[in-house]
Amino acid sequence: MGKKKKRGESEAEWEPLNIERNKEQNDVHLGNGDSQEQKKKKKKKSKEMVKEENVLKEKPTVSIALAGSIVDNTQSLELATRLAGQIARASTIFRIDEVVVFDNIGSSVDSSDPTLEDGSNDDESGAAFLLRILKYMETPQYLRKSLFPMHNNLRYVGSLPPLDAPHHLRKHEWAPYREGVTLKDRNLTSGGTLVDVGLSKPVAIDQVSGPGIRVTVSMGAERSLDADIPHQVVSSSTPREDAGMYWGYKVRYAPNISSVFKNCLYKGGYDHVIGTSEHGIVMKSSDLTLPSFRHLLIAFGGLAGLEECIEEDNNLKGKSAKEVFDLYLNTCPHQGSRTIRTEEAIFISLQYLQEPINSVLQKF
């Protein structure tokens, strides 16, 4: 009995040791499981952080939208060209990233660019006319002959004051980036396409492309036109994102005002939309605080204002201007003239919004 008791005691002594050992082994297995889960979580978290960093890297954009019908009130082609030139100048001065020109076609869903249609006659809509002049003015002078065929509506563009934007570089100037147009020729050493960037000779790029395509070329910090060193083609937004340089505006067509919002090219669309009208609310610019937007849109109406544009749009039937826009502003109260022309309203409104917009941009 004594031996059995000792054996029982011995078993009793070993039992908690075995339980403890099993517990340790289980803890190790659980620990390994947790480690794998943690790795997955860390990997997911790092991806989310990279995504957030990319979003933060993207600087906010400012777009304007205006009705093409403003051209219909001009008395001659020369005056219409001057009007378009004023809009191009205002867009450049205030560093606008996108200009959207919309028609007042009630139910149209065709958002194709009307300037790409064949023909060189001057019988085109006001929106098509504005698009053509705005595109022409934004393009650096040394590229215009290659990118714009002869057209009757371009007759008076030579009389317009130049935009003198940062990407409109002279032949003797060197910059980290230049706009160029691809040529038919290839580089004999690298096989890459040659690009005319407005310098004494073309440069080679690191890819093969067809002729007549506008590209943004990274030129590097040092002035070098060595044909054996291919240059990199970058996104047109790279100078803005990486170097903080204003790099001109994009131009887009919309058949009606609802298409301006619906067909937005930016991911997520416009997150803050401002309408301008004499019927809008009156507020001092210094009292206006804009939300932290990613893509801001400022809209200007046609001859009868934004209210008419909304009424004629079948997609916005029954809606008021205050329902369509996040903010409906009168940027020029107590006006002396009964009417303010759209080209005038653009200058007035962009100056009015300059301080509120800059307050948001400084956060990025």
Detailed description of the structure:
- This protein starts with a helix and ends with a helix.
- It has helices at residues 2-57, 77-93, 126-138, 141-147, 238-243, 257-262, 305-311, 321-324, 342-352, 354-361, and strands spanning 61-67, 98-102, 177-186, 193-196, 203-204, 214-218, 232-234, 250-254, 272-281, 295-300, 327-329.
- The protein folds into three domains: 1-52; 61-146 and 250-361, Alpha/beta knot (3-Layer(aba) Sandwich); 177-243, Beta Barrel (OB fold (Dihydrolipoamide Acetyltransferase, E2P)).
- The strands form two sheets. It has a six-stranded parallel beta sheet, sandwiched between helices. Strands 5-4-3-6-7 form a five-stranded antiparallel beta sheet, with helices on one face.
- By secondary structure, the protein is α/β, with parallel strands linked by helices.
Count of individual helical segments: 10
- The number of distinct β-strands equals 11
Strand percentage: 15-25%
Helix and strand run? HEHEHHEEEEEHEHEEHHEHH
CATH architecture of the largest domain: 3-Layer(aba) Sandwich
Shape: globular
Task: Please compute the radius of gyration using only Cα atoms.
Answer: 30 Å
How would you briefly describe this protein structure?
The protein has 364 residues and is of the alpha/beta class.
